[in-house]
């Protein structure tokens, strides 16, 4: 690139076709090398970092985005929402409107075929979970870095086990989780009972799902809280388990083959008749 700049200055000074040709030839070489270098950077550095250092990849994606206009004005209740606060309220009301309202009888799955799941919490399991934390993850609402929890896992596991046991025995827990899907709570609790999750476990899960609220933030401005009446709290280990238990019987009474993955389902059948 320095040679390219020198040839450009030389051509501007002399105005000779020979010097302009030398400059254009070098300019084309520089352009080709820059493209090759950028491609190598994406493939060898950014692409290879997806498993080892995903932050590098997503940092590149964020810096490459050209759209920085943010959320445009929103129309809500025949009014135009321009401020961040009014946009947050409009979005949160829309999210709240799609929750599942349960007003029909809860289906009865009949006789319980599963044994009662015993209650259990122990410090060894707590220590194991803490030791497997990813230190690069963001903090939970308690703002304690995962790196500290991981490093102190053996020392604090017994105390955390004691705290968790109190939450479990009393059927309560801090109301810090959020939810954004449509799993109906009463139907979910009915299915949990069917699968043998009763007693203290059922009471704790009821507290886990109940009395939740959600807030939308737009550029630091927060909406008014809206109650969460359906769904399982996202970003937790328990949430996908509850979701799978809820949809576990989705293939019953279906004669075709089914394939399930998370919330995606495929129904298919081989057809032999023209």
TrEMBL record:
Pfam families to which the protein is assigned, alphabetical:
RVT_1
Taxonomically, the superkingdom here is: Eukaryota
**Domain spans labelled Reverse transcriptase:** 178-270
Task: Report what the protein is called.
Answer: Reverse transcriptase domain-containing protein
> What is the species of this protein?
Paramuricea clavata
């Amino acid at each position: 690139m320095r040679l390219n700049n020198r040839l450009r200055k030389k051509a501007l000074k002399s105005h000779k076709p020979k010097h302009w040709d030398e400059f254009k030839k070098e300019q084309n070489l520089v352009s080709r090398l820059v493209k090759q270098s950028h491609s190598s950077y994406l493939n060898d550095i950014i692409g290879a970092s997806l498993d080892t250092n995903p932050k590098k990849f997503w940092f590149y994606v964020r810096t490459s985005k050209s759209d920085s206009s943010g959320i445009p004005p929103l129309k809500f209740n025949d009014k135009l929402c321009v401020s961040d606060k009014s946009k947050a309220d409009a979005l949160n009301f829309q999210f709240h409107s799609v929750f599942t309202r349960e007003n029909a009888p809860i289906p009865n799955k009949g006789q319980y075929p599963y044994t009662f799941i015993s209650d259990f919490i122990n410090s060894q399991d707590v220590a194991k979970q803490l030791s497997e934390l990813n230190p690069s993850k963001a903090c939970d609402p308690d703002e304690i870095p995962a790196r500290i929890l991981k490093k102190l896992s053996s020392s604090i596991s017994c105390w955390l086990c004691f705290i968790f046991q109190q939450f479990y025995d009393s059927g309560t827990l801090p109301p810090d989780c959020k939810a954004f899907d449509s799993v109906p709570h009463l139907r979910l609790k009915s299915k949990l009972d069917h699968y043998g999750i009763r007693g203290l476990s059922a009471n704790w899960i009821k507290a886990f799902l109940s009395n939740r609220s959600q807030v939308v933030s737009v550029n630091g401005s927060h909406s008014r809280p809206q109650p969460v009446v359906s769904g399982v709290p996202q970003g937790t280990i328990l949430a996908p388990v509850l979701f799978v238990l809820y949809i576990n019987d989705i293939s019953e009474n279906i004669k075709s083959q089914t394939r399930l993955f998370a919330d995606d389902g495929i129904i298919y059948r081989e057809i032999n008749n023209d």
